[in-house]
Every structure is written in C-alpha cells, then in structure tokens.
Amino acid sequence: MSLKYLMDENIDPAYFTRLRLNLPDLIVRVIGEPNTPSKGTKDPKILLWCEEYDFILVTNNRRSMPVHLSEHIDRGHHVPGIFILNPNLSVGQNIDELMLIAEGSFDDEYQDQIIFLPLTNIS
C-alpha cells in the first residue's frame, strides 16, 4: 500500500482506530501525534507538511480547503491529495471508502485534487 493518510484533528477517532485495525499496512497519522503537525496548525502549513512527507489529508473541511489548495498550488507547491469526508455517510461508510481507495489506487492518482467522498455509488 503506497498511500498514507494524515487525519485532521477534528475527525472522530473511530476513523483512524478502524483504519489501523482493518488495514495494518496502511500508514495513518493524526494531527497532534509525534512527528506530525501539532494541533491547531493552520491549514496552509498542514498542506506543506503533507507535501513534504507525501501524505493525503483526510478532513471535514469543505469550506476553506479548496481555497487553501488553490493558493498552495499557485505558490508552486503540490499535495498527494485531499479527501473530504461526506457528512451524509456513516462513519463506517466513509471508512469503507477510505479503505477501498487505499487498496485500489495508483501512486499520484489524486495529486493536487480534492476528492469528495464517496467515490463509489453507495445506495
């Protein structure tokens, strides 16, 4: 598995707990853990960290993240991607989507993109 996820500090801990349990080879970090941005770090600095360490950001931030990504790219930077969780899906459905993506994606498939979950057609 080549994707790595950095979970936003405002995401329910069930996400990273279940991801780590169900996909032990998937690297999942949470903002505020050792060797990650500290809690309260502003989004532009989080994007720089994701770029440097090659992590996809997983967040709930639907409002300002598109602006931050646009500014980041305008400055000549890149990110492996940003996944925005869907508030209309259950925690389990969002986690299933993240697992499916982690298991079936190509390197750089989501570079410089914001992906709004779900990718699949959930009924």
UniProtKB/TrEMBL annotation:
Domain DUF5615, first and last residues per copy: 4-90
Pfam family, one: DUF5615
InterPro entries: DUF5615
Name by which UniProt lists this protein: DUF5615 domain-containing protein
